[in-house]
Amino acid sequence: MPLAQAAETVLGVYVFHRHGDRTAKMTPPANLTDLGYFEVFTSGQWFRNRYIASDASAQVHGMSTDIVKQSQITVSAPSDTVLFNSAQGFLQGLYPPVGSTMGAETLRNGTKIESPLNGYQLIPIQALSTGTNSENAGWLQGASGCNKAASSSNQYFFSNEYNALFNSTTDFYKGLTPMINNTFPPSQISYKNAYTIFDLLNVASIHNASFPSSNLLTNETFFQLRTLADTHEWNLAYNESEPVRAMAGASLAAQVVQQLNTTITGMGKSKFAIQFGAYANFMSFFGLAQLTKSNPDFYGVPDYASSMTFELVTNASTATFPAADDISVRFLFHNGTTSNSSEPIAYPLFGQSDLVLPWTTFVDEMNKFAVGSEADWCKACGNTDGACAAYTTSNSTAGTSSSSSSGSSHHGGMSLGVAGVIGAMVTLGVILGLELLIVLVGGLRLVSKKRLANTGAAAPAVAETKA
Question: Of 236, 251, 281, 394, which is most buried with the most CB atoms under 10 A?
């Protein structure tokens, strides 16, 4: 189906993109390869040709075409050598160098300065703490930081489904030993490490010219490896009965809504957002958004340089920025590097049939599972340390305050704090009264230290009271 209708205008775009080809997780640190750089650069060129260039097929309304306008674009990626570098490569295709004519300025004294690298455009990338080092983590939840999500994923390893696959594939994985025994000890060559084994062999099949793939890693074996890895990772990323397992997708959903809403409330000032992330975010979002109902391929791990795109569109006049009721959302996905010969396809979200949803419907459906604030994330994940400690302390204080209020009813409306002060004053009065009684009964008198020193009186004859 065509991606856009004739009278339609694109008001904003949110892209979530996977990194390009990289080295294997089991040989850290993982690095973006030249092939991976080429993949994300090529994808960036396609997004430019669709949304940004002067002759773009679905140009974002008011988008700067050649020289980037920083207020219009938002870019983010976790701080690591794969995802962050992928974002940089993508941006080089999205906004290429502008040449010596456009990339130059003349100073007041008449000196002409040309921008380095033929007018290379510098676009800031926001470094995210969430997802950092995810490409060096062998386990899907390894960089999520969400305690309950990790605990939920772990439950898969105790399920009947897991045990059945583990036992039925024992011989299959043992047959892979000659190819991977330099990396995996015999005890780890099993379905338990389905993805990292697939990942290692997949990288080798692409980059290792001396790899003995012809007789050992046959097409049938490789297909089985990938299918098992897909099943393994899907069950770690999503479980319908335990939504917290898909926290990565829930957080992504909130970010999408927030960014697109910024485009609407800001009357189109912010137009284009790109975020790079790991495949876990894709898979957990696929499950939450019920994309598997539209295509079973969504059960699989997305290829390198895959992308999800959310288009904010309208059929109303753009003489003034349209009202929210006149705005809709379209979802597109492409598995692998996007190019002119292989473009994204529109899919229906939330188990519905429509490819384009009204903005309000889209927001309502996303908010059913989105987790958008740090406080909500901490509560859902059960985290109490780091940034979440503030919310734990706040909850504790709120609980104490609540207990004090309820306890006040047992003191005739007097708070525990006030009752404590009054009790202390009464105790002090009793002590002073007893001291005075001792002085009177014993016939003693109070004498200052100064006077005592002047008279030279003996200390035992005087009872000294310190005030």
Answer: 281
Number of domains in the chain: 2
Cα 296 from chain centroid? 25
User: pLDDT tens for residues 230-285?
Assistant: 999 999 999 999 999 999 999 999 999 999 999 999 999 999 999 999 999 999 99
Confidence at 100, pLDDT banded by 50, 70, 90 = confident
Q: Report which of 145, 156, 84, 79 is spatially closest to residue 371, judged by C-alpha positions.
A: 145
Domain boundary among 340, 355, 372: 372
Could you tell me if residue 122 is inside a domain?
A: yes
CB 132 within 8 A of CB 143: yes
Are 364 and 433 contained in the same domain? Answer: no
**pLDDT over threshold 70, residue 426:** no
- Do 436 and 349 lie in a common domain? no
Nearest to 43 by CA among 283, 285, 337: 337
Instruction: Supply the CATH number for residue 146's domain.
Output: 3.40.50.1240
Same domain, 226 and 323: yes
Task: Tell me: pLDDT of 210 over 70.
Answer: yes
What are the pLDDT digits (tens) for 293-333? 999 999 999 999 999 999 999 999 989 999 999 999 999 99
List the domain range (segments joined by +) for residue 124: 1-97+114-372
Q: What is the gyration radius of the CA atoms in the chain, in angstroms?
A: 33
Contacts of 119-123 spanning 24+ positions with Cβ under 8 A? 120/92, 121/67, 121/68, 121/91, 121/95, 121/96, 121/97, 123/68, 123/70, 123/73, 123/75, 123/91, 123/95
Claim to verify: residue 353 and residue 420 sit in the same structural domain: no
**Do 438 and 312 fall into the same domain?**
no
Residue 291 lies in a domain: yes
How far is 279 from 234, CA to CA, in rounded Å? 10
Q: Residue 52 corresponds to which tokens in the numbers above?
A: 């940004």
Record the tokens describing residue 284, joined without a space: 């957990």
